[in-house]
């Protein structure tokens, strides 16, 4: 597929899929009831905005969405933080792979502002 151009508004909209272990779905959701404030701050500083997660509880499919000015830079900025390493370590048991390495990014091709 041909590489898609950046939207005219300069906002990169990122959607991705993750797959939870079926026996850990409820625990994963409980863990997200109180995301560490320092993790939320790190995401904001790294350039992640309008970040949402959705789950299909019957099979553990997670759909994530966020907006950023530069996906590569925002992802690298998070990967370079100690808080991300600690958060990912706590999330590791919910997934077969580390979530930050298992993101299956979807191609954005349409947006209605």
From TrEMBL:
Signal peptide (from-to): none
InterPro entries documented for this protein: Dimeric_a/b-barrel, Rham/fucose_mutarotase
GO molecular function: racemase and epimerase activity, acting on carbohydrates and derivatives
Gene Ontology biological-process annotations: rhamnose catabolic process
Classification lineage: Bacteria, Bacillati, Actinomycetota, Actinomycetes, Mycobacteriales
Entry protein name: L-rhamnose mutarotase
Residue ranges that the Swiss-Prot or TrEMBL entry lists as coiled coil: none
SUPFAM superfamilies: Dimeric alpha+beta barrel (SSF54909)
Gene3D superfamilies: 3.30.70.100
Organism: Mycolicibacterium monacense (Mycobacterium monacense)
